[in-house]
Amino acid sequence: MLPQHPYLLIKPSNNGYGVFANKNFSAGEVICEFHGQLYSRETLPQPYDSVEDHYVQIGANLYMGPSGEVDDFFNHSCDPNAGLKITATKAVLVAIKDISPGQEILGTTPLLWMKMTGKRIAIVTLTTVAVKSKT
Asked: How high is the mean pLDDT of the chain?
């Protein structure tokens, strides 16, 4: 059975399963926090497949493992409407565009996040972004 969430729906998408909004999200609004066990690069399960495995890099040598919850089902897009904001050991998915009910919530690559938000990249992987405010 798929995980349940009060305002996010997991259902089939073009990439297997995806997460869809069940309410309006405004740009800048927090969608959800990611959860999961923390791992160093050396302690990641082997063999490790960076495409198929649901691990989020949140530090230079720090990864968050799958939670078994809704945060394991977000997909990447070159036209994203959300991005991860990472601080220390916390990863929060934030809307970077307004999102309507029924719309799939899709994450961004680092370069698109930088272009859309004007924020500098601190740590990145293919499907996650960490940002620092301009100083």
From this structure: 78
Predicted TM-score (pTM) of this structure: 0.76
Domains and CATH numbers, the chain: 8-132 (2.170.270.10)
Mean pLDDT of the 54-82 span: 85
φ and ψ at 101, to 5 degrees? Answer: -55, 140
Q: What is the pLDDT of residues 95-109, one digit of tens each?
A: 999 999 999 999 864
DSSP, collapsed to helix, strand or coil, labels residue 34 as: strand
- The answer to whether 97 touches 33, Cβ cutoff 8 Å, is no
CA 50 – CA 21 distance, rounded (Å): 26
Token pair recorded at residue 92: 């929060």
Neighbour-count burial for 64-89, b at 16+ CB within 10 Å, e otherwise? bbbbebbbbbbbebeebbbbbbbeee
How far is residue 135's CA from residue 133's CA, in Å, rounded to a whole number? 6
